[in-house]
Write a structure and sequence with these properties.
- The complex is a heterodimer of chains A (357) and B (206).
- Chain A is mostly helical and 357 residues long.
- Chain A is built from 14 helices and three strands.
- Chain A folds into two domains: 2-55, no CATH class; 84-356, Transmembrane di-heme cytochromes, Chain C (Fumarate Reductase Cytochrome B subunit), CATH 1.20.950.20.
- In chain A, α7 (173-204) crosses α9, α9 packs antiparallel against α10 and α12 (319-325) crosses α13 (327-336).
- Chain A starts with a helix and ends with a helix.
- Chain B has 206 residues and is α+β, with helices and mostly antiparallel strands.
- Chain B has a single domain, classed as Alpha-Beta Plaits, CATH 3.30.70.
- Chain B has a two-stranded antiparallel ribbon with strand order 1-6. In chain B, strands 2-3 form a two-stranded antiparallel ribbon. A two-stranded antiparallel ribbon of chain B has the order 4-5.
- Residues 202-206 of chain B have low confidence and may be disordered.
- The chains are: A mainly alpha (357), B alpha+beta (206).
- Chains A and B meet through α1, α3, β1, α4 and α5 of A and β2, β3, α2, α3 and α6 of B.
């Protein structure tokens, strides 16, 4: 029975091949140019192949996936093939993961090299012992809230992005899954808090962070990083640049993060997976960039420079530190008379006595 | 040599009855709002309308497994792509990468955030002990262990949805293609009822 079947099928195939030249001309003659679009070596249209070819391509008009209709209601239920998925996968696995490793590692290397070349940046005149109010309590509250949230979000984010290639092989899937699960929860719950605090920070620190001519001169002198003196106001060019990078990239990261965080919260938007891929792209690029730049800020604010960390920790800085790093701001304070209360540090003679004492 | 199992949905046979969707939901007792399988109709109500039943296609080079941050996916000897819900963190990356929209997420978490991912298992259960209560609760039925094929395909009234060893499935489909071609040729190619015209002419509905 089976042999008869096989024989019959074989006969069919032979029959088809023999007929093909005739049938091709037949179909082309009948359907004109339309048939030419379809791939049909035997001259017989294969509807399934054409259907799959059609749904695998982006909609030529909309640029998005071809969308059908489905009785199942859910995100992307009516999309048959999510075309962007493969592009997102390739981008994530061959670009994002290696390049973010290079960026994070490279920045750490740069900081180590800078430390070896430049060493610790000391207050040249030594500490005067006189304190100047630099940040209000509210400014410090906002700074440290954002800073702590930023570091937690950064570390949990890096675990999610790079952990599979770094931490997972070391501690195994179960332990890493546990860490990543609670890391994700922390990331998702702290993210919205960070969003609110970032907006508060935008308004808290915007005063004094507008770029002016002094900052261009500051950048031309390399910020005094490699010797020399670069004048600066309340904030120097680097601090202003970090403020604006943090705010602008931060807003992109926050908005894309909220989209990723609450996929179901706004069902009206009914975001497609293509839009989630774009949100994830912006979120990853923006936050890796922020994290890399933040290394520089954290290093400068803590280990690099004598007298810098205490300004944000206590809200007060040493007057000699202010004179050396923020001279224009210091002069302004002198002119305003804000320093009259503890002005002894401002004239050179008393400075010397303070040092000898 | 273990079989390499595949799904195939024959677009010339699917009548969008959604029996596969219902069978899957019932057999695996998936939570409300989760659909491991769905039927999508393109060109609905137009000439050349076609329906296809889609679920996880158990890719050989699975994008979900490639992008998973915690590496919770694994492929069985039968070529079935499964995942471990104890490791899954519900980040949603698999759903961004999947071409077929297979990964599903319960939204029962706080602020309707994503829970652990759920998807078609080819009715092959999961990493828990075969036939255990835990396996059924987390991953649904393990029909393969009982010597049965996925219920969606077994239920299919028109035998549009095929599941099983890839060679057998493609043999069945090949025979269908040849017999269809025969009927077309017998009518000298004049009757092209089956032709799918990929021209969507802007009538794509979202």
């Amino acid at each position: 029975m089976n042999q008869i079947k096989q024989f019959f099928l074989f006969g069919l195939v032979i029959f088809l091949f023999n007929l093909s030249p005739i049938s091709i001309s037949n179909v082309h003659a009948a359907d004109g140019e339309k048939a030419g679009q379809n791939f049909s070596p035997l001259g017989v249209e294969s509807p399934a192949a054409d259907l799959w070819r059609a749904v695998r391509q982006r909609n030529p008009e909309g640029g998005e996936n071809l969308v059908g209709r489905s009785q199942v209601k859910g995100p992307n239920a009516s999309t048959l093939i999510n075309v962007g998925g493969q592009e997102w996968r390739n981008w994530r696995n061959s670009k994002l993961i290696p390049y973010s490793m290079y960026a994070l590692g490279g920045m750490l290397l740069v900081i180590v090299l800078f430390r070896l070349i430049r060493g610790k940046i000391k207050i040249k005149a030594g500490r005067s012992g006189k304190k100047i109010k630099r940040f209000t309590n509210f400014q410090r509250f906002v700074h440290w809230t954002v800073a702590i949230l930023f570091v937690i979000l950064g570390i949990t984010g890096v675990i999610l992005t790079l952990g599979r290639y770094g931490l997972l092989p070391l501690i195994g899937k179960e332990a890493f899954g546990f860490i990543a699960y609670y890391g994700k929860l922390l990331h998702n719950y702290l993210g919205p808090v960070f969003s609110v605090m970032l907006v508060v920070m935008l308004f808290t620190f915007i005063k004094g962070n507008m770029f002016n001519w002094t900052d261009i001169k500051w950048f031309l002198k390399g910020g005094g990083l490699f010797g020399g003196h670069a004048s600066a106001g309340r904030y120097n060019g680097g601090e202003k640049a970090w403020y604006w990078i943090a705010m602008l990239a931060g807003i992109v990261v926050v908005i894309s993060g909220l989209i990723l965080n609450f996929p179901q919260l706004i069902p009206i938007l009914n975001l497609s997976s293509e839009q989630f891929q774009q949100a994830q792209f912006l979120h990853a690029v923006g936050s890796i960039g922020l994290f890399v730049v933040s290394f520089g800020h954290i290093y400068m604010g803590t280990f690099a420079m004598e007298g810098a960390f205490e300004a944000m920790r206590t809200g007060e800085c040493d007057s000699n530190w202010a004179k050396e790093h923020h001279d224009i701001w210091y002069e302004e304070l002198q002119r305003d008379g804000s320093l009259t209360m503890n002005d002894t540090a401002s004239n050179p003679s008393s400075n010397e006595t303070a040092q000898t004492a | 040599m273990a079989a390499n199992v595949k799904f195939y949905c024959d677009s010339e046979r699917c009548i969008e009855c959604n029996a596969c969707v219902t069978a899957c939901k019932n057999e695996n007792e998936v939570p409300w709002g989760i659909n491991r399988r769905r039927v999508v109709t393109v060109k609905d109500g137009e000439p050349g309308e076609r329906s296809l039943s889609v679920a996880c296609m158990h890719c050989t080079d699975a994008p979900c497994a490639a992008v998973c941050p915690v590496d919770c996916f694994y492929t069985t000897d039968n070529g079935i792509v499964l995942h471990d819900k104890d490791i899954c963190i519900g980040c949603g990356y698999c759903s961004y990468a999947c071409p077929f929209g297979a990964p599903q997420f319960p939204t029962s978490g706080a602020f309707s955030s994503r829970g652990k991912m759920d998807k078609c298992t080819f009715c092959a259960g999961g990493p828990e002990e075969t036939g255990s209560v835990d396996e059924y609760k987390k991953y649904g039925a393990n029909r393969l262990a009982e010597g049965k094929l996925p219920l969606c395909a077994e239920m299919c009234a028109t035998k549009a949805l095929l599941a099983g060893d890839a060679n057998t499935v493609s043999d069945i489909y090949r025979k269908r293609v040849i017999s269809r071609s025969m009927s077309t040729l017998a009518s000298s190619g004049a009757i092209q009822q089956n032709g799918f015209n990929p021209d969507f002419s802007g009538k794509v509905t979202k």
